[in-house]
Design brief:
Chain lengths: ~300, ~525
């Protein structure tokens, strides 16, 4: 063909940048990612950051203000000198150590709750969206699940199994599952009408392969974004549960437990609540900023809607 | 003086685009009472120029040179306030998709009224009278009712008439029509074209008509400007450009427009039919819990027959049921009644597991090349998916995929790339390769070339015909475009409201249509008096 007569179309192919590169260049992702990475570092390296065992207490060092030096009794009965960077609580425990160790619980709860609810939500959502006969039953069940508040589930589970990381994660994840299911279902309902899915049907592709091979990969971007929001809310809910005394046992250092303990003396020693509160706020903010950045880069359509 | 003079207009594209300029030193004029057609394929910059004239360019596309003179006043230099005034009073625009261009929560009357309220000192009674006048002028029946209707209560053609009424109510000097009939059926398109022509004659409006369709150009234009990649390659009087194109690109474009003359290949085949449908019906039942039962007969008593090496075209307007028939045959939807006989075996009522071994014999190519391929899978994965489903070893499937890529005239190296790296025409070739990988006996092309530019369309049509001959396939070709049908089909079935109204060899249907609806379709075909193609 005459080169002059070439269709303009060939010049028309959109130049795509890989999603991963877009994600890395996004400032929200960078900011949220760096803050979260620091928090993970704190969680992992908590024993090396000049902390003491966060459950140790000493009656002589109760209610110290930040920066004061006092002493602490180890399990062996020895006394050690210790500088209370963030002060101490009414049992004489080191708030700095407790906050540092508390990072572990918060991040674990956020991550596990997000993963658990995503896993169940994906399976239920895919089934409801693609297998039409299952849709009615499954979604009515999800509606029922949504009507139970997380705190109620938590109280019931703690009563049944006693408070532990598992109960807290399960209690937080269960009410999130219907939300994820709804999101996945709505995505599946639109993706299943795409011609490439119909083409797969015509090519004789088995149903399970269509669900997991064609539909699921196209739901990943919005799900990653949703996962960060679940993570942020799980961290908050965990703190609330601990604060209310239906989360992890009070001797385990979590930000919610520290705040609950400090509540009675808030007027005299506001740092007891203030310091873990700042950590909680920064963590949730970092996760949300990361999520916003991911949404903008991975899922531009959703970014416009929200 | 010209109504519009575009002089050396240059519009920059953001860096990183496929070219530097969306429009490069484009110059043309539109005179009073004249229709100038701006023709080009997708990406030629024709819509960008329209936006520039209306002062609606996004900030990412700045005008970097030249002038746009509307009745002598440079729009490029005009401030936002002045532009707003000019837009309603002196120039206006009609868009392609009337449903999205109209506000769905305002009545049509209120939307026309808004224009008048903003820009005229008329009293409410005077405005009301003017609205009814203009609605009457765009030939809408029962103006009182239309004015009180919401856009969704009107048909596509009626909505476009409202758009035109809105655009012309202030008697602008210039009307820009950006593909105003592309979303409409061919019979509606003919009426809208007639309306635009009549109104511009009556009011002496200058019209800049943007289109990709040379049939429309032949019907409506006084002068034609051909755009290619942002450059104006040819401009002249209609007959001059269409009959004696000077530029190679124009020649190629006009040559690629299919003729309305059937190709005249002998359609007789002695082989047994691959596909036969007997009284195929599809009825959609809408059963609310309390509401009345509503039935829609999408397809009724459709009986067709198709042999190897033959192409049967199903032609019809939107909603005629032609795609429903195709989707029933490939069993993407279940027919309500009737038989679908594939080599004599009725597959209409088969369960999924019974159907599975037969599925590979019927394959389909869809309309939208941008949604037909899973964006997250490589071309290779798409092409080998079918064979692998049927137990072909992966290595053999890959080998076959390479051969198929050559068959559809693409580089086998593109197998490792992702769909977004290809143009629409290339993607459609990939879809054809994917379908052929199953070694089908029947290939369904559901509007497979409708979304493509005319030059690409010609290439894909040629490819389909070549493949049908080489592989001795039976092909079912669904289309709304009579020109495409004339070019490729041996037999034609014309569908209207779910029924086949005329069915026979293409030569007979095109040569001497018997049914009134078929005749109406032909009469509405744009540019039918103009001999395209082999020219």
């Amino acid at each position: 063909m005459d080169p002059n007569a070439q269709s303009v179309e060939a010049a028309n192919v959109a130049s795509h940048e890989s999603a991963w590169r877009r994600v890395r260049r996004n400032w929200s992702v960078r900011l949220g990612g760096v803050v979260l990475a620091l928090l993970v570092l704190v969680a992992v390296a908590a024993p090396l950051l000049g902390t003491v065992d966060p459950t140790l207490f000493d009656a002589a060092s109760r209610d110290l203000v930040p920066g004061k030096t006092g002493e602490i009794t180890t399990l062996d009965g020895d006394y050690i000198k210790h500088k209370f960077l963030f002060g101490s609580d009414s049992f004489g425990r080191d708030i700095y150590s407790r906050v540092m160790y508390g990072t572990r619980v918060s991040l674990m709860v956020g991550l596990l709750a997000a993963l658990l609810s995503l896993a169940f939500g994906i399976v239920c959502g895919l089934s409801a969206g693609y297998l039409r006969w299952l849709d009615g039953i499954l979604m009515r069940f999800m509606d029922g699940l949504m009507a139970i508040p997380a705190i109620l589930i938590a109280i019931a589970l703690v009563a049944l199994w006693r408070g532990s990381l598992v109960t807290v994660v399960v209690a937080i994840a269960i009410p999130e599952i219907p939300r994820v299911t709804r999101l996945v279902r709505s995505l599946v309902l639109s993706i299943r009408e795409e011609p490439y899915v119909e083409a797969a049907v015509a090519l004789g592709t088995p149903t399970w392969k269509i669900m997991f091979g064609h539909i699921l990969p196209n739901t990943i971007a919005p799900l990653v974004v949703q996962g960060t929001y679940i993570c942020a809310s799980a961290i908050l809910v965990e703190a609330i549960l601990s604060f209310l005394g239906v989360g992890l046992p009070p001797d385990i250092p979590t930000w919610g437990n520290i705040m609950a303990e400090g509540r009675r003396q808030f007027i005299e020693f506001p740092h007891n609540i203030f310091i873990p509160g700042v950590f909680l706020a920064v963590t949730v903010l970092a996760v949300n900023i990361l999520g916003d950045g991911l949404r903008d880069t991975l899922d531009p359509k959703m970014a416009k809607r929200v | 003086m010209s109504v519009l003079e575009v002089r050396d207009l240059t519009i920059a594209l953001p860096t990183g685009g496929d070219r530097r300029e969306a429009a490069a030193r484009v110059s043309f004029t539109v005179d009073r009472g004249e229709i100038v057609c701006l023709v080009g394929e997708s990406g030629s910059g024709k819509s960008v120029i329209a936006q520039a004239i209306m002062g609606l360019l996004p900030q990412a596309l700045p005008v970097t040179g030249g002038a746009i003179l509307l009745e002598g006043e440079d729009i490029v230099q005009a401030g936002a306030e002045r532009l707003r005034e000019l837009r309603a009073m002196r120039m206006s625009m009609v868009f392609q998709e009337p449903m999205t261009a109209l506000n769905p929560v305002m009545t049509c009357g209120d939307q026309i009224d808004e224009v008048l309220r903003e820009h005229t000192p008329l009293s409410p009674e005077q405005r009301r009278a003017k609205i009814l006048d203009i609605v009457r002028e765009v030939a809408l029946p029962d103006p009182e009712r239309i004015v009180a209707s919401y856009p969704h209560q009107l048909s596509g053609g009626q909505r476009q008439r409202i758009m035109i009424a809105m655009a012309l109510v202030l008697e602008p000097a210039l009307l820009i029509a950006d593909e105003p009939t592309t979303a409409l059926d061919v019979t509606t398109q003919a009426q809208i074209l007639e309306l635009i022509r009549e109104l511009q004659r009556r009011h002496g409006t200058g019209v800049l008509f943007i289109t990709h369709d040379f049939g429309v150009v032949a019907d409506i234009a006084h002068r034609v400007a051909v755009l290619r990649l942002g450059e104006l390659v040819e401009m002249g009087a209609k007959d001059e450009v269409l009959k004696r194109p000077r530029h190679d690109y124009t020649k190629m474009l006009i040559g690629a427009v299919p003729t309305l003359q059937p190709h005249g290949r002998s359609a007789e085949g002695a082989s047994a039919p691959v596909l036969r449908t007997v009284k195929l019906c599809k009825t959609y039942v809408d059963r609310g819990w309390f509401g009345r039962r509503r039935e829609v007969h999408a397809a009724q008593d459709v009986s067709i027959e198709l042999r190897r090496g033959q192409t049967l075209g199903i032609v019809g307007e939107s909603g005629s049921g032609k795609s429903t028939v195709a989707r029933c045959i490939i069993r993407l939807i279940d027919p309500t009644s009737g038989e679908i006989r594939l080599h004599g075996q009725d597959i209409a009522k088969m369960s999924a597991s019974e159907l599975r071994p037969l599925r590979r014999k019927v394959q389909i190519v869809f309309q939208d090349p941008y949604r037909s391929l899973n964006p997250r899978r490589t071309v290779l994965e798409a092409v080998i998916e079918g064979p692998v489903n049927y137990g072909v070893p992966r290595a053999r499937a890959i080998e076959r995929a390479r051969q198929l890529m050559e068959l559809v005239r693409m580089d086998p190296a593109s197998l490792s790339r992702y769909p977004h790296q290809f143009s629409g025409g290339q993607r459609q070739r990939i879809c054809i390769a994917r379908a052929l990988a199953q070694e089908p006996e029947l290939l369904i092309a559901d509007e497979a070339v409708s979304a493509l530019d005319v030059s690409v369309q010609a290439q894909v049509l040629e490819l389909l015909e070549d493949i049908r001959n080489r592989l001795n396939l039976a092909m079912l070709f669904i289309t709304h475009d009579l020109r495409v049908a004339a070019q490729i089909c041996d037999h034609v079935a014309v569908m209207s409201e779910g029924r086949i109204v005329e069915y026979g060899p293409a030569i007979e249907v095109f040569g001497a249509p018997r049914h009134a609806y078929t005749r109406a379709l032909f009469e509405a075909a744009p540019g039918r008096d103009f001999a395209f193609g082999a020219a």
